[in-house]
Design brief:
Blueprint (H helix, E strand, L loop, with lengths): L3 H13 L10 H5 L59 E2 L8 E7 L6 H11 L5 E4 L1 H6 L1 H9 L3 E4 L12 H19 L15 H11 L3 E2 L13 H11 L5 E5 L3 H16 L3 E2 L2 H6 L17
Parallel strand pairs: 1-5, 2-3, 2-6, 2-7, 3-4
Bound molecules: nickel (II) ion.
């Protein structure tokens, strides 16, 4: 008998196999692929003092992360290709795909209240996302990461202490990546398959080092609502809705309550426009080589 997770996995694969709905990349979306590298995120690096119980949230303050008992599920993406050939590049800010697929990503968690609240929203809509977590926070809130994996989401490496990698030497980069990876493995029993550099700042040589030694391509983004500047939930939502096209990688931060507040309208809006959500690894596995079959057309199906 299949476990719920296995069933979930098969459902994802089945939906990925549906080729009826071939997406077209809009010209605007294609040009946007060089979008800003400015921010992931400007959230201040965590201080050495753990935030622990000091974190305040206005929403759902009584939420308690439900304990997830073992055995720890396998990474739901394990049965998809992990062969990111070197010649296909090791940095992605969007992916050329057939179909209205997008990947939404949440950085700088886990957060003890905001992340579980977001997980509830994603579960209600059967949406799978990718979480670029900070290793030190994973050590503080391992149960949140465990639940994230149990519900079919992907965990990516966002370094252990959220330092700007381009200022670090190779050994420090290795430490930042390996310590975060180890924290994820300890918490949830899965290996991260991709990484995202804090602030988007990473030298080409460092990207090659991390790809060669850890097997993780560097994932940036093509849609940035600048939610870390706290523009308000409505603005976050409208920026994501106006910027998203097929193949987009959307950047957001579950560290911020207002970003999570923006998600119901954002996710429902994207669903109404015909977008389907996959994790970053799934999006990479769907990569096509050229946009020749993708004439300009609006991504919206509604
Ligand atoms: Ni970040």
């Amino acid at each position: 008998m299949k476990s719920p997770i296995e069933t979930l996995g098969s459902n994802i694969i089945t939906s990925l196999g549906n080729e009826n709905d071939i997406a077209k990349l809009s010209r605007r979306g294609f040009l946007a692929m060089t979008a800003s590298l400015a921010s992931c995120s400007a959230a201040a690096p965590l201080k050495d003092t753990p935030p622990a119980a000091a974190v305040k949230t206005t929403a759902n303050p009584n939420y308690r992360t439900p304990p997830v008992k073992g055995p720890v599920p396998r990474n739901p993406d394990q049965n998809l290709s992990n062969n990111f050939a070197k010649d296909s590049g090791i940095t992605f800010s969007r992916v050329l795909v057939h179909g209205n697929y997008v990947a939404i990503t949440f950085d700088d968690g886990p957060h003890p209240q905001n992340t579980p609240r977001l997980l509830d929203m994603l579960r209600d809509r059967n949406i799978k996302a990718t979480f670029y977590v900070i290793g030190r926070s994973v050590d503080l809130y391992p149960n949140v990461v465990r639940r994230t994996v149990a519900e079919g989401h992907e965990i990516g490496n966002h370094t252990h202490t959220h330092r700007l990698l381009s200022k670090l030497g190779n050994d420090e980069v290795r430490q930042e990546i390996s310590r975060c990876r180890d924290a994820i493995v300890r918490a949830a029993g899965v290996q991260p398959r991709t990484m995202r550099p804090p602030y988007g700042g990473m030298l080409q040589a460092q990207r090659e080092l991390v790809y060669n030694e850890f097997g993780n391509p560097c994932i940036l983004w093509s849609v940035d609502p600048l939610d870390w500047k706290r523009p308000g939930a409505g603005v976050v939502s409208s920026r994501i809705l106006s910027g998203t096209t097929a193949g987009s990688i959307i950047l957001a931060h579950d560290l911020h309550a207002a970003t999570v507040d923006a998600m119901p309208a954002t996710l429902d809006g994207l669903l109404r426009r015909g977008f389907r959500f996959v994790t970053v690894s799934q999006l990479l596995a769907m990569k096509v080589e050229s946009a020749t079959a993708q004439a300009a057309a609006p991504a919206a199906a509604n």
